[in-house]
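hey so u asked for the seq, here:
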Amino acid sequence: MGNKIYSLSSGILAKRFNVTSQTIRNARKGITNSDLAKEIRKASEELYEEMANNMEEKKIKMTQYGSVGKLAKLFGVTIQHVNRALKCEGNSNKCRAIRKYALENGGVEY
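ran it, structure tokens below
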């Protein structure tokens, strides 16, 4: 899960600081030591911790047989995509929408 969070947080940080993903990677590796790089490293650690905590808490189990397939059809994605969303392995807008809908329609957090 660590690599997935690391990749997700790179995109978020790139948007937040209005820089490229390469700049984020260089700052994390310590290649660049400017004030911006220090801010990026600090924000990266905080964001990583926050995302790790959030992703570990929210696994969802569907209780009705066939409900995962119905979610896949409803959202126009594969069953594998729905399963990843319910396990919180993805944090896209669609994954969040799938989790929200699942909880409102018979899903149980565990």
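The chain has a mean pLDDT of 83. The first strand starts at residue 60 and ends at 62.
lmk if thats what u needed
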